[in-house]
Design brief:
196 residues; Rossmann fold
Length: 196
């Protein structure tokens, strides 16, 4: 089972991944977490480029699109191996991030045509103003105008794909965690009504 948490910056993905991992392990499942970009050499380069002042420029967006696709290919073997071992994979981001952050969409889709499709995508939907307030401003992407467009792209993709569940990330972390657990529970025959 491959579960991905997506959302704009500051949506609380890291916190919620940790809470979801604990919940699934308490229910007897083996869980592995992954994050994009990875800690590979390609992933390190991506992290460096994200802090550049021209990170949102057209040329840099295309460069990042290529690098993210390459980084994703590097973890494909690991993801497939974990699934074969019967482990639940929880990922912080997937190719959907590239579809909403980089352009043009058709080209990004082509670059990622071999990327693994998640069984479930939990979209942490956060108000853009809250997102900017929660981030440290080190990435060029962390501004209202850019993130508003990204949020709209996320909601559009969620409408188009049946594997998405939208979670209101404007609530407190405990409520968000509860909503995530209720969304995930049926996949593992866990009683969703028993979750507070």
């Amino acid at each position: 089972m491959y579960i991905v948490l997506e959302g704009i910056d500051g949506a609380g993905k890291s916190t919620q991944i940790s809470l979801l991992k604990d919940f699934l392990e308490q229910n007897g499942l083996e869980v592995e977490t992954v994050v994009e970009p990875t800690d590979s050499e390609v992933g390190k380069l991506i992290r460096k480029l994200l802090t550049r002042h021209d990170a949102t420029s057209d040329a840099m967006q295309k460069t990042l699109g290529l690098l993210f696709a390459a980084d994703r290919l590097l973890i494909m073997e690991k993801l497939n191996k974990l699934e074969e071992e019967g482990k639940v994979i929880i990922s912080d981001r997937s190719f959907y991030s590239s579809l909403v952050y980089q352009e043009p969409r058709e080209w990004i889709q082509e670059l990622n045509k071999y990327a693994k499709i998640p069984d479930l995508v939990l979209l942490l939907d956060l108000d853009v103003e809250k997102s900017v307030a929660r981030t440290d401003g080190t990435d060029e992407f962390e501004n209202v105008e850019f993130l508003t467009a990204v949020k709209e792209n996320y909601l559009k993709i969620a409408e188009e794909n049946g594997n998405f569940k939208i979670i209101d990330a404007n609530n407190g972390p405990n409520k968000v965690s509860s909503d995530i657990k209720k969304a995930v529970a049926p996949l593992f025959d866990i009683c969703a009504d028993c979750i507070r």
